[in-house]
Design a protein that fits this description.
By secondary structure, the chain is α+β, with helices and mostly antiparallel strands. Helix content is 19%, strand content 24%.
Length: 474
């Protein structure tokens, strides 16, 4: 169809609003599962696997054809639709901490680091070794603590971000330095490989040869990921949400039979989105678990909701899927009956551990002298136009100056009081000079953003000479 192969996986899809099916068609591609079973022998740059995948209790006719029964992409969770205790508002979800401790949503993340011993002009080449103090850019003894004599970290070693796991030294970069190295003037340089992700364990180290016959090292680091606040989950009906609370099982609401749900979803997630398919899946999942057989939920085939109600009633449950529930903290019964059932949930690869980022000091861009952008570059957090407007509306002028200038691209230029032109520095006289009025001009320091200085310089390049009117600071 229009939405691709993944849309055929959605049970009761004809009961959902069409944008929700589009969202799920995209999100199913991001769900963790077991995409291949030979991961022990592969050296993909990265891989992510769900540790305890389950085949869905409610399926469409093509689930098996797509191979999703052999390699599933989710888990069947007992889901209650309830707003208590409030940590699931705005699409957050509450997970039962005991279920997480028993393996719900647990995954394993692999990242492979590669290093090749290249050969250079003049017969010199890279060497895998533990760099010594005589090497240029030597990082200190502690940095190489994981390395053995062959320059490789041992399998099973626990590693953290920035740890060196493959030791390598290279000859100098430039031809002139090569010549000087022969006479011992210049040392080899350290080009070791560091862990760029989070902490983990070295799972395997592969030593192979490249097409040119040079040694190639692949170090595979694995990391166990347990669901935590901020990790993203989604049902097959486009109902996505992040974990807002891992709740103690003693505090979770429970049914009259003593069943504690795995997940609590807010009832406000349903009225405007009209994902009725999730309600039907919830009832069908309950029937499947109680009867021990898979329920077929292929869309656009003859389906009778009354049959589902009847089957659930015969199994000894309320035909509507509602149940009496009790507050785990007070033991009191909730006044309303709560809708409880089994829904297939997918853990998506958007995890808070990959996204969390903060910075105090760090690199700046060469052109604007403002902090770089993005986690990978150690960048700052952007104060955009609308964020700036919040400070302005609140009257927080000191915070505004600190964020927009002091913590960004503050620079000081010297401006002539007479003509308003920017002065230049004369290193011989160690003084700032006005280009128009000379050395004797009254120049005063002005604090501005470097981006503004850049604008002034670009205007000068267009033969427009901007003049600044200087007043005393209030």
């Amino acid at each position: 169809g229009f939405l691709g192969v993944t849309a055929i996986f959605i049970p009761f899809a004809e009961h959902n609003q069409s944008p929700r099916n589009s969202y799920e068609a995209a999100m199913a591609k991001q769900a963790l599962g077991v995409p291949y079973t030979n991961f022990d022998y592969r050296v993909d740059s990265r891989g992510h696997f769900l540790i305890y995948p389950q085949l869905p209790l409610v399926q469409t006719c093509v689930t098996d054809l797509l191979g999703l029964n052999d390699r599933p992409i989710g888990q069947n969770l007992v889901v209650a639709v309830i707003s208590e205790p409030g940590y699931n508002m705005e699409d957050a979800i509450i997970l039962n901490k005991a279920a997480v401790d028993r393996g719900l949503g647990r995954s394993i993340f692999f990242q492979t680091y590669e290093a090749e011993a290249r050969r250079y002009v003049g017969g010199m080449k890279d060497v895998f070794e533990k760099p010594g103090p005589d090497v240029k850019d030597y990082a200190g003894e502690d940095a190489y603590r994981l390395l053995e004599d062959d320059g490789l970290a041992a399998v099973g070693s626990r590693v953290e971000m920035n740890d060196i796991i493959i030791g390598r030294t290279s000859p100098p970069r430039f031809q002139e330095e090569f010549r000087r190295m022969i006479f011992g003037e210049i040392k080899r340089r350290d080009t070791s490989v560091r862990v760029t992700q989070h902490e983990g364990v070295i799972d395997k180290i592969y030593i192979t040869l490249s097409a040119e016959g040079e040694r190639v090292i692949n170090a595979k680091v694995k990391e166990f990921r347990v669901p935590e606040l901020g990790d993203k989950f989604a049902s097959r009906h486009g109902q996505k949400g992040v974990i807002g609370l891992l709740m103690d099982p003693d505090d979770m609401p429970y049914t009259a039979d003593g069943v504690v749900p795995d997940l609590l979803i807010n009832p406000h997630a349903f009225p405007s989105r009209m994902t009725v398919g999730q309600f039907l899946e919830s009832i069908a999942g309950k029937i499947s678990a109680l009867s021990g057989r898979i329920v077929d939920a292929t869309p656009f085939v003859s389906f009778n909701y009354e049959e589902l109600r009847e089957m659930l009633g015969k199994l000894g449950f309320e035909p509507t899927g509602m149940e009496v529930m009790y507050d785990g903290r007070t033991g009191k019964r909730f006044k309303a009956e709560i809708f409880v059932g089994i829904v297939y949930y997918q853990k998506l690869h958007h995890m808070v551990a990959d996204k969390i980022h903060a910075r105090a000091y760090g690199p700046v861009q060469m052109l604007t002298r403002q902090p770089t952008e993005g986690k990978s570059r150690g960048g700052g957090l952007r104060i955009g136009e609308m964020e700036k407007d919040v400070f302005v509306a609140y009257g927080a002028s000191a915070v505004l100056q600190e964020r927009m200038l002091d913590a960004s691209d503050k620079t000081i230029i010297y401006v002539c009081r007479k003509c308003g032109l920017e002065g230049y520095y004369n290193p011989r006289t160690k003084k700032f000079i006005c280009p128009k009025d000379g050395e004797d001009a009254p120049l005063v320091p002005v604090k501005i953003s470097y981006a503004f200085k850049l604008l002034l310089d670009e205007l000068k390049s267009l033969n427009i000479y901007p003049r600044l009117v200087v007043k005393e600071e209030v």
